[in-house]
Amino acid sequence: MRHSTTLDQAFGRAATAAQRDGNSSSKVQAFEMSPSPPFTQSSSSQPELQEEERLVQQYEEVQEEFSLEVEQRSLQQCISGITKLDTFNTKRLPKRPARPQEQSGRGFNLALAASSPGYPKRRNNRRQRQQQGHHVHHGQHHGAEEGQRLPGPGASARSRMAHVVVACLVRGGKVITPGLATCSEGSPRLRPHVARLLNGRQPASVTQHAEIAALNRLPKGTTRRQLRKMTLVVIRPKFNQNLGHTRMLCAQPCRECAQIICALGIKSVVYSSEDALYRCDAEALLSAAQPSSGTVFMRREEPTSD
């Protein structure tokens, strides 16, 4: 607003000077069309020419000042935009860390750790101390010595985890079923996405074997065509305290698991026995497989129940 008012005053003064000379229209037009109009008419008097030159000089100064201020404003806008951009970058939320992928083959590492003497490790030490104190108090009532502590519940767990059967499915040199697939006292049933490949057929074993646990860890959407290219690996590691290293005991699949493996069409089976690994196809495994101890026990109990 200040610059526009100054320009209007300059134009008003120029028009007044032109009216005094009598040629207002031609001189104002020449002044508006050209930034520096030629004031070289001989009819004008010397004071009027000086006044016109002063007005033209003032107009040029105002125009130069206006252009400098416009450039300064544009520069400030650019600087403020860059500052806002830097502030936005500094306040940007950090990227989320990538989800850790499941490491294939860690089941074997956990199995080897399970075969060590100090496995499993108790994390809840407070609860363990309370249980041990309860055993000591209970032993005092039954004639046990005060300094003698009865074995806590962790002792039986260590003895049961002295050796464990671990299984996984491999294809193309990569483990397809990550995690620790071991034998347990859980349900022996297959998951729906695996049982669907067998038309709902379920294994006849009593507890969950390592082979069934590995099959349950197959990703959803696995087809029979993919199973025909897979190999089932079963090992049974046991840590030998006398020798100081881990031995591989017999982990040949039982007849119940061999029937499921053969029905799924798995390519081959690799199992450990006496510190060695043996490889055979599913049909040969089924012909040489023996029933599990749980199945034998159930068969022995059947005549007694009748």
From TrEMBL:
InterPro entries associated with the record: CMP_dCMP_dom (IPR002125), Cytidine_deaminase-like (IPR016193)
UniProt xrefs under SUPFAM superfamilies: Cytidine deaminase-like
Pfam families per record: dCMP_cyt_deam_1 (PF00383)
Stretches the record annotates as Disordered: 1-50, 90-157
Biased composition (Low complexity): 39-48
Superkingdom of source: Eukaryota
Name of the protein in its database record: CMP/dCMP-type deaminase domain-containing protein
Origin species: Symbiodinium microadriaticum (Dinoflagellate)
Record lineage: Eukaryota, Sar, Alveolata, Dinophyceae, Suessiales
